[in-house]
């Protein structure tokens, strides 16, 4: 009697994004997570997952610490430029890779985003994959770069929509869902218009104040 080929275990499928984010939030509060550990844990999906992690805190419709958008925007800018240049894996300076953060602080930033990610996951499936595969990484990098610049601008209420453009594009790339990538592109256009509107209103108010 010949042995049957071993069946593929169910848990061999890639983890859900929500499970990965939840795993980052769970654990002892005083544990520390380094960027180097994230790079190793994310593996082949490092680009998309890192972009997602750095964009998520800005995508929550709640006040965040002043200057946090710019702090989180710096790694987004670096990652997007590398995607635009065709890097196969993310590169960070050694000083960045060794930097660590308390798990409690990471959870405080990421856990509020989990319900939103879980809702989006209901609609995710591989489709129009040519819009989310390696051949479009430069285009995706350009889109992330543009929105990361908008996100980093010190404009009140201006970071939310560009952040969600990045989040949708990252999720679409990770899950090879071109429809979600297109949704991110649409949100990107809306975000650019919103930031321009806020700039126009802000400049008009300054003119009135100093007229």
Summarize the biggest pleated sheet: 2 strands, antiparallel
**Helix segment count?**
10
Uncertain stretches: 1-12
Strand content: under 5%
Biggest sheet, spatial arrangement of strands: 1-2
**In sequence order, what are the helices and strands, one letter per element?**
HEHHHHEHHHHH
Q: How many DSSP-defined strands?
A: 2
What structural class results from the helix and strand content? Answer: mainly alpha
Q: In angstroms, what separates the terminal alpha carbons?
A: 92 Å
Shape: globular
Level of helix content? Answer: 55-70%
Q: Return Rg in Å.
A: 19 Å
Q: What is the mean pLDDT?
A: 81
What distinguishing features does this structure have?
mainly alpha, two-stranded antiparallel ribbon, 2 strands, 3% strand
Describe the model.
By secondary structure, this protein is an all-alpha fold. The chain is 61% helix and 3% strand. It has helices at residues 17-25, 35-42, 46-55, 68-84, 94-97, 103-110, 114-121, 137-152, 160-175, 178-210; strands at residues 32-34, 100-102. The protein has a two-stranded antiparallel sheet. Helix 1 packs across helix 6 (103-110), helix 1 packs antiparallel against helix 7 (114-121) and helix 4 (68-84) packs antiparallel against helix 8 (137-152). It is globular and about 55 Å long. Mean pLDDT is 81; it is low at 1-12.
